[in-house]
Amino acid sequence: MKSVGSSTSRTAPSAVAVTSIATSILTVRTSRRGFTDITSQCAEFLNEASAGEGLLTAFIRHTSASLTVQENADPTVLSDLTTALSRLAPENAGWVHDTEGPDDMPAHIKTMLSATSLQIPVRQGQMMLGTWQAIYLIEHRVRPHRREVVLQFIGSNR
């Protein structure tokens, strides 16, 4: 560890040459509005790609669903987050865009407030997520959908 001031420290930097770019499309069938944990599918992709050290990018190919890294220990966190997003972009709030129903425009707003792309550092083939972190697809629409998430690893192989 290297000291970076009186109350912080960091490990020495590691560097590898990029020798691999692997890409896969993960298809997720959602059942309704809410969070779907895709962490294990991301880990399986890294294993199949023989990932060593690098970066995992997850990109969702939709405008009414999104991605996030959130707590995986207490399910009430996800419930409260769903409630918060619904309060920020309620249905039937007089939106002009309602072609696909009253949940359509709120879904677009919720996607804009969250993320369509995540970058997760990878070391020794493992995502460097914190103890209580997981990767979630957030479905913002009421009814089920088929969602696609592009997974891409850039880095070195094991």
Strand content: 35-45%
> Into how many domains do the coordinates divide?
1
Largest sheet: 5 strands, antiparallel
Which regions are unreliable across 5 or more consecutive residues at pLDDT < 50? none
- Output mean pLDDT: 95
Distance between the termini: 24 Å
Q: How large is the count of helical segments? A: 3
- Per the CATH scheme, the topology name is Jelly Rolls
Number of strands: 10
Can you tell me the overall shape? globular
CATH homology group:
YjbQ-like
Helix content: 10-25%
- Spatial order of strands in the largest sheet: 3-10-5-7-8
Helix/strand class: alpha+beta
CATH class identity: Mainly Beta
CATH architecture heading: Sandwich
Would you list the SSEs in sequence order as H and E?
Answer: EEEEHEEHHEEEE
Radius of gyration, rounded? 18 Å
